[in-house]
Amino acid sequence: MTCAATALLTDFYQLTMGHAYFKLGMSETATFELFVRKLPGSRRFLLAAGLEQALTYLEQWRFGSEELEFLARLGDFDEPFLDRLARLRFTGDVYAMAEGTAFYANEPILRITAPILEAQLLESRLLNIVHFQTLIASKAARCVLAARGRRLVDFGLRRAHEAEAGLYAARAAYLAGFHATATVEAGRRFGIPLSGTLAHSFIEAHDREDVAFCNFVESQRGTTSLLVDTYDTERAAHRVANLAHELAKRADPRRIEAVRIDSGDLAAQARIVRGVLDEHGCRDIRIVLSGGLDEHAIEELLAAGAPVDAFGVGTSLDVSADAPALDMVYKLQAYSGSPRRKRSPGKATWPGVKQVFRRRGAGREALGDEIALQGEDPGGEPLLEQVMSQGRRLAAPVPLAGIREGCSRELRSLPADARQLAEGGASYPVRMSEALCALAAQVDALTP
Amino acid sequence: MTCAATALLTDFYQLTMGHAYFKLGMSETATFELFVRKLPGSRRFLLAAGLEQALTYLEQWRFGSEELEFLARLGDFDEPFLDRLARLRFTGDVYAMAEGTAFYANEPILRITAPILEAQLLESRLLNIVHFQTLIASKAARCVLAARGRRLVDFGLRRAHEAEAGLYAARAAYLAGFHATATVEAGRRFGIPLSGTLAHSFIEAHDREDVAFCNFVESQRGTTSLLVDTYDTERAAHRVANLAHELAKRADPRRIEAVRIDSGDLAAQARIVRGVLDEHGCRDIRIVLSGGLDEHAIEELLAAGAPVDAFGVGTSLDVSADAPALDMVYKLQAYSGSPRRKRSPGKATWPGVKQVFRRRGAGREALGDEIALQGEDPGGEPLLEQVMSQGRRLAAPVPLAGIREGCSRELRSLPADARQLAEGGASYPVRMSEALCALAAQVDALTP
Question: Which of A318, A339, A366 is the last residue of a domain?
Answer without folding.
Answer: A318
